Task: inverse folding
């Protein structure tokens, strides 16, 4: 996910938390979601790197 999507996501969480009055809950949910997005993107990078290495080994 790119940086502008993080900003949009944070703004949406902020607006919802203000209207519902559960600011701490939404802030913690936001931190958990952002860390899960980061873990997912890191795993995808590793997966693509492994696929490239395996494809290059098969060609030799």
Result:
């Amino acid at each position: 996910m790119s940086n502008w999507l993080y900003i949009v996501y944070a703004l949406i969480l902020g607006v919802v938390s203000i209207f519902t009055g559960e600011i701490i809950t939404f802030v913690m949910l936001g931190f958990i979601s952002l860390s899960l997005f980061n873990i997912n993107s890191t795993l995808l990078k590793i997966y693509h790197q492994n696929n490239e290495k395996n494809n290059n080994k098969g060609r030799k």
Notes: The two ends are 34 Å apart (CA to CA). Helices lie at 3-20, 23-59. Residues 23-60 form one domain.
